Inverse folding.
């Protein structure tokens, strides 16, 4: 591998808005690639945070709260463009998305307020068990999410949607990775949506959860703006491509990617649990 020119490394080290952290060009390249991959995954089925957040945590000197806050800034850039793409092409039901997103914003703000107080390690085993259950449930029901068969009507449907938004939003503000995945499977299994419209709704709600978390993290001063904008541009590009692919290929494609992503999340979290035990 050829070394980068010294001036390129120096320019990378003086990137503004990084809170004084020293970043070389290879670290920035890794973060850009992680941001793009995370944006694509998030746009299709969610779960991109388990690519992007660990990459941010590799930055020397960054604190967990700074990484989480910067991850939200980059994430909201990707979810904004993927949500807009889905809105234009899939036309999700805003009567469901509205109350669900509002409740998710409230939940995310509250969750973010607790993020610096509760050890994230407590949640990993719980999330792992939940994801294994999600994987088994999805694989065991091959017709799940193939077509929409909505449960409840009117206000009942919206109240259940708001409840899902509040719970998943609180998780997103508190920890974050896998939020989109939990939103998609909740919309499919609880409310009866097909995978494609579920992904469309999830992006609108995920935008609100990112915004809710930022409402806490920005005044708290935890966001590294320069780093977040660099990763966010990559996330935005990945989100646009992922949303267009999902719309073009339909619910079957989204379901396959969903199973693959859940499997990858299980392997990642499982390895973390084993590493902690060892």
């Amino acid at each position: 591998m050829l070394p980068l020119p010294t001036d390129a490394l120096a320019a990378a080290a003086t990137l503004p808005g990084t809170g004084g952290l020293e970043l070389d060009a290879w670290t920035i390249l890794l973060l850009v690639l992680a941001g793009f991959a995370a944006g694509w995954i998030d746009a299709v089925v969610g779960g991109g945070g388990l690519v992007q957040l660990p990459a941010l945590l590799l930055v020397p000197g960054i604190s967990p709260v700074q990484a989480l806050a910067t991850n939200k800034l980059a994430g909201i850039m990707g979810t904004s463009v993927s949500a807009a793409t889905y809105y234009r092409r899939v036309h999700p039901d805003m009567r469901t998305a509205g109350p669900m997103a509002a409740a998710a914003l409230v939940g995310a703000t509250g969750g973010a307020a607790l993020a610096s107080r509760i050890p994230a390690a407590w949640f990993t085993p719980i999330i792992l068990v939940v994801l294994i259950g999600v994987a088994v449930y999805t694989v065991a029901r091959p017709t799940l999410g193939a077509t929409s068969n909505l449960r409840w009507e009117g206000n009942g449907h919206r109240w259940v949607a708001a409840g899902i938004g509040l719970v998943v939003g609180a998780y997103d503000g508190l920890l974050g990775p896998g939020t989109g995945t939990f939103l998609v499977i909740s919309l499919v299994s609880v409310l009866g949506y097909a995978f494609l419209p579920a992904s469309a709704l999830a992006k609108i709600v995920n935008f609100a959860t990112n915004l809710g978390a930022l409402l806490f993290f920005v005044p708290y001063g935890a966001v590294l703006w320069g780093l977040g904008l660099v990763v966010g541009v990559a996330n935005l590009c990945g989100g646009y491509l992922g949303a267009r692919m999902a719309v073009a290929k339909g619910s079957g494609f989204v379901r396959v990617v969903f199973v693959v992503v859940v499997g990858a999340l299980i392997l990642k979290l499982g390895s973390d649990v084993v590493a902690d035990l060892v």
The chain is about 75% helix and 0% strand. The CA atoms of residues 34 and 52 lie 5 Å apart. Residues 22-277 form one domain.
